[in-house]
Amino acid sequence: MSFMKKHQFLNVDFHSTVKLSAATQKELILWLNWASPVVERLIKNKILPGFKGKTVSVSLLICGDARIKKLNSDYRNKNKVTDVLSFPSIENLREQSKFIDSDLFLGDLAICHPQTLRQSKEFSIGYLDEFIHLFFHGLLHLMGFDHEISKKEEKLMQDWEQKALAEFSQIKKGSR
């Protein structure tokens, strides 16, 4: 399954190598649509204030354990399943954003469907809530954040995740 779903600010090229029900696909698209204004405000007002483009795009792959494990092994030398992987199109985007005056391709995200299910059960939250958390987490990596390089960077990234999720929660409540 492959299709392009356009949002106001955020364009997501969505692909899945796992079987998703029609209802889940529909909900994922709806939630990605709700994420668009959150991403726009974070990028334009906070994270990349020099960005002058009208849209950002991301390629999103929803895959299974074997695919994410292979990607993690090939690109990070970690031979294990993980929840989300990010492949940024621009190294150190936070430092270069003031020079970007056109639409921007942030990069590629891979989210592991079975791991998202497992984590949603572990944290006693819905699948879509865990999915959107992983989506925002991955987007922050695409924008140049890395929680593994220092405690300061980890705190900064967690703060942005919480801001994004809080704003998303308000949009979700208003849309239901």
Characterization of the model:
This protein has a 5-stranded mixed sheet with strand order 1-2-3-5-4. It is of the alpha/beta class. The longest helix has 26 residues, at 22-47. The chain has 6 helices and 5 strands. Helix content is 53%, strand content 19%. Residues 1-6 have low confidence and may be disordered. The chain has a single domain (2-169), classed as 3-Layer(aba) Sandwich (Collagenase (Catalytic Domain)), CATH 3.40.390.30. The chain is globular, with a radius of gyration of 15 Å.
Sequence-ordered SSE layout with sheet pairings:
Blueprint: E1 2-6, E2 10-16, H1 22-47, E3 56-63, H2 65-76, E4 84-88, H3 93-96, E5 104-112, H4 113-122, H5 127-142, H6 151-175
Helix pairs in contact: 1-5, 1-6, 4-5, 5-6
Features:
5 strands; Collagenase (Catalytic Domain); disordered N terminus; 176 residues
Quick gist of this model?
Helix content is about 55%, strand content about 20%. The chain contains six helices and five strands; from the N terminus they run ββαβαβαβααα.
Structural class: alpha/beta
Shape annotation: globular
Per the CATH scheme, the topology name is Collagenase (Catalytic Domain)
Question: Helical region count?
Answer: 6
Kindly estimate the percentage of residues that lie in beta strands according to DSSP.
Answer: 15-25%
Nearest-integer average pLDDT: 89
The CATH homologous superfamily name equals Metalloproteases ("zincins"), catalytic domain
Task: Tell me the Rg in angstroms.
Answer: 15 Å
CATH architecture: 3-Layer(aba) Sandwich
Q: How many domain units?
A: 1
For the largest beta sheet, what order do the strands appear in spatially?
A: 1-2-3-5-4
> Helix share of residues?
40-55%
Distance between the termini: 27 Å
Low-pLDDT residue spans: 1-6
The largest β sheet comes out as:
5 strands, mixed
